[in-house]
Amino acid sequence: MGGLRDRIKGLERFRPEIPEQQFESRQGYRLIREALARVSRAYPAGALEWARQHRPELAAAQRAALDDAEAAYAGEDVEGLRRALERFGRAMRELTAAFEAGEVEAPAPAESPPEAIGLFPEMEEGRRRAAQHRGAL
After folding, report:
1. Residue 78: which of 66, 87, 69 has the closest Cα?
2. Residue 134 DSSP label
3. Terminal CA-to-CA distance of the chain, rounded, Å?
4. Where are the domains of the chain?
């Protein structure tokens, strides 16, 4: 019996190394989608742009977490991706809380001078709103 056990132990060195958790791109996309869905439910429009102007450290924390998530996804690191997305969620919650608390007043949107308003003021209003939300995510 001892001889067979010794031979099996000797064969273990030929066993391929299996990563602890196999990375699947679908799983990575799912994790990213879920994180973005959680954030978007509570995200007030304009908060990220506000943070870039008034609380750059919060915007930087959010950006760093996204960069880490990208690197983890590219490196097929599921656990790293999870950790980075958790940090992203925390960063966005902090950013949103600061925005809603009004820790720094957000500047009032610039009003269009009367001569800039076209024949269809509702279209101008729609363009103004769209411009406020560009780059918010």
Report:
1. 69
2. T
3. 65
4. 20-104
pTM above 0.85, yes or no: no
Taking CA atoms, 131 is separated from 41, 91, 127, in Å, by 21, 24, 6
Determine what percent of the chain falls in helix, strand and coil, rounding each to the nearest 5.
Answer: 70, 0, 30
Which DSSP string do the residues of 16-61 spell out, in sequence order?
A: PP--SS---HHHHHHHHHHHHHHHHHHPPTTHHHHHHHH-HHHHHH
State the DSSP code for 136: -
**pLDDT tens string 20-76:** 556 678 888 899 899 989 888 888 989 999 999 999 999 999 999 999 999 999 888
Q: How many CB atoms lie within 10 A of CB 115?
A: 6
**Residue 68: CB partners within 8 Å, gap ≥ 6?**
80, 83, 84, 87
- Euclidean distance between CA atoms 29 and 16, whole angstroms: 27
Quick one: which of 51, 63, 49, 42 has its CA closest to 132? 49
Residue 97 tokens read as: 């809380």
